[in-house]
Amino acid sequence: MIEDNELREIYKYSSAEHLQNLESGLLELEKNSDDETLIHFLFREAHSLKGDSRVTGVKSVETIAHKVEEILGSIKKKELILDPEITDHIYHAIDGMSKLVHEAVTDEKSGVDVDKLLTSLNNTNAEKTLDFSDQIPEVSSFSITSLFIEDEDLRDIYKSSSEEHLEKLESGLCLLEKDPDDEIFLDKLLLEAQTFEIDSRMVGREDLETLIHKVEEILEKVKTHQVVFNEVSSRLTQGLSGIKRLVNEAVTGEPSNIDTVGLLKGLTQSVAISLTSEVVNYTSSNEIEKTQTIDDSHHIDTIRVPTVQLDILITQTGELTVTRVGVNHTAVAINEIANLWEEIKLRRSSNAKNVHVYEEKLDAILNEIKVTATENSSRLDYISNQLNDKVHTLRLLPLSTVFVLFRRMVRDIAKQQGKQVELVLEGEKTTVDKQIIEEIKDPLMHLIRNAIDHGIESPEERELLGKPATATIQIKASKTASNVIIEISDDGRGLDINLIKETAIKRKLCRQDELDLMSDQQVYDLIFLPGFSTRTFITEISGRGVGLDVVRTNIKRLKGNIKVNSNPGEGCQFSLQLGTKLSTANVMLLEVANIIYALPLEYLYMSLLVAPQQISFLEGRQIVQLEKQAIPIIELGTVLNIDQVNRICSLRKRQNKAEQKRPFVIIKIGREYLGLLVDDLLHIEEVILKPQSTIVEGVSNISGATILGNGEVCMILNPPDIIKLGQQFSTQSKVTSSEDSETVIKPVILLVEDSIAVRTQEKRILEKAGYEVITAVDGLDGLKKLKAHQVDGIISDVEMPNLTGLEFTEEVRKNSDYRELPLILITSLASEEDKKRGADAGANAYIVKDQFNQGMLLETLDRLV
Predict the structure, then answer these.
(1) CA-CA to 153 of 20 to 30 Å: which in 215, 454, 686, 775?
(2) Where is the Response regulatory domain (predicted)?
(3) What single-letter DSSP state applies at residue 451?
(4) Is the pTM of this model over 0.85?
(5) How far apart are CA 93 and CA 61, in angstroms?
């Protein structure tokens, strides 16, 4: 781990930016391998990452980045042609470096085998055919054999050329202060710095080369408006001053006494500081999206803020100070009024003269307070609104922050499935709340995976259909006054409405008579129901036990909704509509046992009064008939586990009222309804959502808190939790009311595995998860056990003696009684051909042992059995 706290923080952000640029740029380069500007850009990113890693002592990243730089250098010089094999090696290197950077800034072990990664890079065609003698030697720090250039001719040449370069760079910085937006002049300075860098490399002064390269990097960021010149000009001037002394050292041998690492750190820090003071909201094909550091859960720790926005906030805080002084004067005046009133009362009681003088003073002060209080109130309203708007603006980030993550994912999944897919992004500059950026990643990723896995045809199938071999997935973002719209569309096969109906009946989600009354749109919406899947063969790509119902739930949490449209044979489109304000919410305030709770309005289906005679029982559950539909109802106090004494008191208060009807609300999520009986319905109010305290974090039924106008803290209800818990209470009450206890029936799984170690481990996992397990030692034994037992599902290895897993699967499917029996293959065979053979044999799911984990197996079983 990097010991220097400041250096570690700088390295964290600079390396994340370099790695993101390398990955995104490589994706672009695959489309246009002849783009010399982009190749140069990638080469410099690798070079910068290597230099930053050298300064901070992260040897592993430095070495790998140097090797990537070599390969990109060979591509730049046309000594090497970029092919898929080399591209994959570079991608693996980027992934490895990302983990190693994380290790360097957190001290968490990366698990990266650096030697293995370097070997894979060395085994590329580059190492077989190219000579990299002209590249920078691999070093762990600035290792220079001699500070003085020994070769006299080379020394004289470098002396005159470096003096010229320095003179032009120094005078150029002065001119830039007058016109920092002069791109033509910036290009001249960049060319000057590049030449200076190459000259320094040729004379073996690696320290100078690295410093000059950092100057180049800053100038490039100024040119592309990523940093403001005035914010880095002083550091650039200091940098050039240090470079001049180092040049003198190289040509005269006189010690420069320059702390090279400290100088480089200062230049790097200047970029980091400038970057964190502005939001970069632009993208292009060759300038890669600048994104924030994102961990696995995509949590954003920092936001870049334009300095102009900070200036506005500082101005408003100044106005707030003025208003505070005015309020303090009012407080002093109120004290004076109190004193005057006491004096008036005293004089009246003693019949003293001149009481009217004090009354006149009191009247004057009251008039003054009336005016100043009104002014202060108006000013506070204005400042409050301004601060609210500006602070919310600070949370806005471009959607490119998350969109950029999908390019690599689409490439990898498409390649894995032998499909050709192009991802088209539109509206990446659309800005949304930080929370949307954090939480929209997983739903979008799931929809994209589904599109590739379910919707996109193989290149051969597309050509037979008259479509281009390369499919297109488009993500388009736009914004209205109150909503953000994100559309994910593909030109694949579309949704099969008949298959959806068959699946809904098979999964017992709908009856045929209900389907007959549905429109096409209503049928399409069935895919969002829990437990729905048309997929007959599950792999690690899409078969993780997570359906589109989870996507819809996540969208609902973002105050949004999702719709699907499809044209069979032409493609499918998912449209996400999200709210723009996530820090405020409209809620219905409810009272239960003298406690006020807030119910988000997006979950409120209806609120009304219900008489006791309207409540009936159906299958042991309390229900209310509403519009020919039985709505289950329950006391909200029961769900919230409110203290029994408080609930009894509130019930008595209700009984004393003449009105016997109970207020209750119906909440709805998807196709699920639940009625909640409460003590009182108050009113609808817009509230500010407070970050969830660690005290209530993870507490069911509560999603957060707010402060009401009267200063009271109010808990915000979490309807998804309430619906689940409400169903459990109903089920429990039904069971406990029965005289006979119900027997829990465990699903039975046939486990076919020849390895005793694997068989024992998988058996333990399944039994712990609540399954009864019957084991078989190979496929032949599996067939015998299947005939002798009634099972609910099968898990089988593939490579086994006597009868392989594929042969076993084929034999099982020959029997009509077992054609619908869920069957999962677990194997180390990971190729697409192997997976196709598994699907052709009749398996429902295919889990690769290298990617196997307990959660995935159980989720897949839960989805199938």
Answers:
(1) 215
(2) 748-864
(3) I
(4) no
(5) 9
